[in-house]
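Figure 6 in text form: structure in, sequence out.
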């Protein structure tokens, strides 16, 4: 697992190992704001958003850390919120305020990345580049699950199916339906 540690003036990237539960810094990566990150399914690559005063971009580096770094998003697209596909063959991210894109990734025999392509029917992000990632992919790679802030308007785009999560539904059922004698 990876996460950002932030202070008033700086953010750095850290990892939490499992099952040892040890925390360690991932390289010497510093940013102006929190670094959204995603570890590849095979545990060999770290994708993260680097925010600096110069701009925002998505990068990938080997895990464990080396000085080798690959820029995934374009210089002008303000890429943010990277997420690996479950098979590790694609990396998803938002180019600025635009809809989600995917780029093909090959990690062996050497790291290569394709051009970003729009994801058909993809949603638009209603979070800023500094917010935590609000989406994840199901293990089979067929669905994207998104937690949207209802108070923040979504830019016009495709309709987003909605579902509701009901907690403690059995207790409510017992209250509404009296037990049979």
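Output sequence:
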């Amino acid at each position: 697992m990876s996460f950002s540690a932030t202070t008033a003036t700086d953010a750095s990237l850290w990892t939490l190992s499992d099952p040892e539960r040890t925390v360690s810094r991932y390289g010497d990566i510093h940013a102006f704001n929190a670094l959204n990150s995603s570890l590849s399914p095979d545990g060999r690559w770290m994708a993260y958003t680097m925010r600096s005063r110069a701009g925002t971009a998505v990068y990938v580096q080997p895990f464990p850390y080396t000085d080798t770094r690959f820029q995934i998003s374009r210089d002008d697209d303000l890429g943010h919120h990277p997420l690996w596909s479950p098979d590790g063959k694609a990396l998803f991210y938002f180019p600025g305020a635009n809809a989600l894109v995917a780029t093909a990734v090959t990690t062996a025999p050497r790291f290569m990345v394709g051009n970003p392509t729009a994801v058909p029917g993809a949603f638009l992000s209603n979070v800023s580049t500094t917010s935590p990632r609000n989406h994840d992919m199901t293990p089979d790679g067929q669905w994207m699950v998104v937690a949207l802030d209802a108070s923040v308007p979504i830019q016009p785009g495709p309709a987003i199916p909605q579902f509701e999560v009901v907690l403690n539904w059995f207790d409510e059922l017992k209250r509404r339906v009296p037990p049979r004698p």
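Caption detail: The chain is about 5% helix and 40% strand.
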